[in-house]
Write a structure and sequence with these properties.
It contains eight helices and two strands, in the order αββααααααα. It is an all-alpha fold. It has a two-stranded antiparallel ribbon with strand order 1-2. A hairpin with a 5-residue loop joins strand 1 and strand 2. The protein is globular and about 55 Å long. The N and C termini lie far apart (about 45 Å).
Length: about 300
């Protein structure tokens, strides 16, 4: 694997604003003209002491995302008879934690290096755990366990905690060099197989699994079509956000002379995607859908 790009973060960090880039040595550049990876740097707003608030737009959108998520939490609480209400609330709480961390990791809020590494570890771990919870929400719809029970919620929380602690440990050990095991990833090409699998691949698998299972639930079991519009919108909005992050970010940064990059739009479209996921969930729980009779074939 030494001759492949698998596991390498350097090019991603050069062209994008990913939280994981804060863990490596290049994540703390000495110049405001280029980021530490040789790409376009966000300069943002100059502060005292040669500090910069580099991504004010993302910070403001993260604040909006937190407020919107709190509103959706409240709306979910009102849907007392909805299937998977508690499980959806767990997902929203996870998303709130992600957005709170993003203020300090991607938003460029002035922090010392160690504090930023700490927030980054929590951020990355929260992303993986939250998307795992989203995948578990898809299984809840099949009613293999009674939703909202201590068993259902407890299993989801425990399994998410495993992902959170495992991912968080690797991220923090990388950034703080506790054991030195990941020190080889601190410099270019920043190869870290463990974080690559957990941060890049696992969330993708969780998302594909969620959309596949929900599609099966809606089309095969519920026999409906309208909820698929909301689900498709959620997927499309998320994909657009990732295009802004991984493809368009560097071009936006260069075109605006470092004033803004794709991270701003990624935050916006991710928020819109989460809202559509909630709308989708609400749409399949607001009515009495026909469910298969035990022992019968699916319609």
């Amino acid at each position: 694997m030494g001759s492949t790009q698998f596991g390498n973060f350097h090019d991603f960090c050069r062209d994008s604003t990913l939280p994981i880039c804060n863990l490596f040595n290049e994540g703390f550049p000495k110049s405001h003209e280029l980021n530490g990876y040789g790409g376009c740097a966000l300069r943002g707003i100059s502060l005292s002491g040669d500090r910069h608030l580099t991504n004010l737009g993302s910070i403001l959108l993260c604040a909006v995302a937190i407020l919107v998520s709190l509103y959706l939490l409240w709306m979910s609480e009102r849907k007392e008879a909805a299937v998977g209400r508690r499980e959806m609330q767990l997902f929203l709480i996870g998303f709130i934690i992600v957005e709170l961390c993003e203020i300090f990791t991607v938003g460029g809020f002035p922090l010392n290096d160690k504090a930023r590494i700490g927030f980054t570890g929590v951020h990355i771990a929260a992303i993986v755990a939250t998307l795992w919870i989203l995948l578990m929400n898809a299984f809840v719809g099949f009613q293999m366990l009674d939703d909202g029970t201590p068993l259902s919620v407890g299993l989801i929380l425990f399994s998410a905690l495993v992902f959170f602690l495992g991912t968080g440990y690797i991220a923090l050990d990388t950034g703080f060099s506790w054991t030195g095991h990941f020190d080889g990833s601190l410099d270019a090409p920043n190869r870290n197989i463990g974080l690559y699998v957990l941060y890049q691949l696992a969330p993708l698998i969780f998302l594909v699994g969620y959309f596949a299972l929900e599609t099966l639930l809606v089309l095969r079991i519920l026999g409906e079509r309208k909820p698929m519009l909301y689900l498709a919108c959620a997927a499309l909005l998320f994909i657009i956000g990732q295009i802004f992050q991984y493809v368009a970010s560097t071009h936006i940064c260069q075109g605006t002379d470092g004033k803004v990059n794709g991270a701003l739009f990624e935050t916006l479209f991710t928020l819109l995607s989460v809202v559509m996921v909630w709308v989708f969930w609400s749409s399949i729980t607001e009515d009495e859908w026909p469910m298969p009779v035990p022992g019968s074939a699916y319609p």
